[in-house]
Write a structure and sequence with these properties.
By secondary structure, the protein is of the alpha+beta class. It has 14 helices and twelve strands. The structure holds adenosine-5'-triphosphate. It comes from Acanthoscelides obtectus (Bean weevil).
Amino acid sequence: MIQTQDLLLRPSEELTLSTRGYRLMNKLGEGSYAQVFLAEFTIKDGDDKSTKMLACKVVDVSKAPKDFVKKFLPRELDILVRINHPHIIHIHSIFQRKTKYFIFMRHAENGDLLEFILKKGPISEAQSRVWMRQLALAIQYLHDMEIAHRDLKCENALITNNYNLKLADFGFSRDGQGRKLTSTTYCGSLSYAAPEVLRGMPYHPKIADIWSLGVILYIMVNKAMPFDDTNVKRLHEQQINRRWKFRSKVVDQLSDNIKAVVGHLMEPDITKRWRVDQVVTSDWMAMDSRLTQMTNAEEIALAQAQQEKQSYMDSLNKKHTGLDKKAGQLSEMKVLKTSAADSEKAKKYTSAETVVKV
Ligand SMILES: Nc1ncnc2c1ncn2[C@@H]1O[C@H](COP(=O)(O)OP(=O)(O)OP(=O)(O)O)[C@@H](O)[C@H]1O
């Protein structure tokens, strides 16, 4: 029986994974209801054998609250099988065995952005621009697919061995079809939460994502949080009164353009807060001429977002027709089952192997 620190894998689970070529190794990190492990994937082709390293997020639903199991996990899996973008962590395959889900994905060798900043110090303006653009394009793609991330934070931005940033963790994401969400549905981190979210009023999740993007940019260049979040009321007051400033250590090294961008993103008035497209086309981005044009992969992904959104919405509409309210609650599980059972349809939405029950 493998004991990878906290995770106990039963021999049968180990065997099931190993027959498919996967082996879990040391722990890379953990979140609220999941542990993430380094994993080895071996492909055999006759006598040839090749191995590649992946990360595997293991979610044990027997240890998670009902809300998470019924609501957030199905949403995360549903979203994971639909997305495919150069700046979003690539999902390799997803397996479900009894109470455990194994989400195999690309391994980000340089860990998450928070770890990176804590280890290496504040990120230079030039590097922040590159990473902000990658993050903004990932969010633009999601928003175009009517998906709001809702938990944007440094821990969910992963850094690869080539120093590219990839967005991860769709545990709290949901479609943002103009639906308004109340504070009870907010589960992200306080420090990154927009003022309208803290107020507990209905809010637009896509616009709230942009605030979090501003907090991430602030943290990148300052290696500090913009606000003191020990008291929610005080935090909200600081946010709406724009009571934040760049650290004296970095303020003189930063351009006026980046300072303006942070201000436009951490804008308490949602009617004035920038939309994600404005970050991509900002004067700050244009300071690096390499960043003014989209790569082929970025353009293709964006074009696909619109197409995918349409076919996905059509398929959901079909599925939901005739369902009563009670059945509607179960439909989130059905989406998962459908994508596992109907691999043809699922393939349209994903580059991953999709959810396979083993
Ligand atoms: N692909 C990966 N490569 C390297 N490290 C990773 C990878 N995926 C996750 N991690 C590490 O594991 C941590 C937890 O992962 P993740 O955020 O997906 O878990 P979670 O339970 O969904 O977290 P949360 O409680 O924030 O929702 C990350 O912050 C990161 O440090």
